[in-house]
Specification:
alpha/beta; six-stranded mixed beta sheet; 38% helix
Length: 265
């Protein structure tokens, strides 16, 4: 993927997605800039994961246009495999090959897709295992790792393919609470290094601290978006306030009631 500097890393226009008679996405317009971290939040069933999966055509859009790195992935003639080489994706499930060691999990796609030789692939794999703090686990099998370790291996595997952008679909949702921090720390490091990231998450602290922009979705559409301090602390829409009141400390969300309380108090 290569793009002119003025083009967004991801450009979505008029995106619709239906499963049978159920319309899950109802006309999404969204850009993600190069080096930007966009966190997508919202209630279950709002279309967040479907939106993410449409970006690299894991779900086929019903209508609309998506460009990634200047390439229209919704063009019927696009070479989607070539586009996907520049996109790393980390899922809720770790999707590691259980019969392969950690090192082999990181090298198999490098060798088969990128045609790297074993020596080069292993060198790159070890660099990224070190980055996620798991170099000493290269000979282990996935079943010998904790969930948090498996997710960090999955991130290292994606990074080994030299992606230009990373998509994260609720990467901590299946982890025990004490394991979440290590995964988020790796993601914070990627953001600090300038990786373009689109993250579907329920980790509001991460969104507040790391995101350049927060997008709140509900009912298959984008309700509002903006800097974390605005969307998470001063949401404009009642639906956003209602959602955040359930997932945040109420003192973090400003609204008519909170403002009234400040005036009275």
């Amino acid at each position: 993927m290569s793009a002119r500097p003025h083009q967004p890393a991801i450009e979505i226009r008029g995106l619709h997605k239906s499963f049978g008679r159920i319309e899950v996405l109802k006309g999404i317009d969204l850009d993600v800039g190069h080096g930007e971290v966009v966190c997508v939040i919202g209630p279950s069933g709002s279309g967040k994961s479907t939106l993410l999966r449409c970006v690299n055509l894991l779900e086929e859009p019903t209508a609309g246009r998506i460009r990634v790195g200047g390439v229209e992935v919704t063009d019927p003639d696009v070479d989607i495999d070539t586009v996907r080489r520049g996109i790393g994706m980390v899922f809720q499930a770790f999707n590691l090959f259980p019969h392969l060691t950690v090192l082999d999990n990181l090298t198999v796609a490098q060798r088969r897709v990128l045609r790297r030789d074993r020596t080069g692939a292993e060198r790159i794999a070890r660099e990224h295992l070190a980055r996620v703090g798991l170099l000493e686990k290269e000979a282990a099998y996935p079943a010998q790792l904790s969930g948090g370790q498996q997710q960090r291996v999955a991130i290292a595997r994606s990074l080994s393919m030299a992606p230009q952008l990373m998509l994260f679909d609720e990467p901590t949702s299946s982890l025990d609470p004490e394991l979440v921090g290590d995964v988020l720390a790796v993601m914070r490091g990627l953001a600090e290094d300038g990786m373009t990231m689109m993250v579907v998450t329920h980790e509001m602290t991460f969104a507040r601290d790391v995101a350049d922009r927060v997008v709140f979705m509900d009912g298959g559409g984008i309700v509002e978006q903006g800097p974390p301090a605005e969307v998470l602390s001063r949401p404009r829409h009642e639906r956003t306030r209602s959602f955040l009141s359930r997932v945040l400390d109420p003192s973090h969300v400003a609204g008519p009631a909170a403002e009234a309380g400040q005036l009275i108090g």
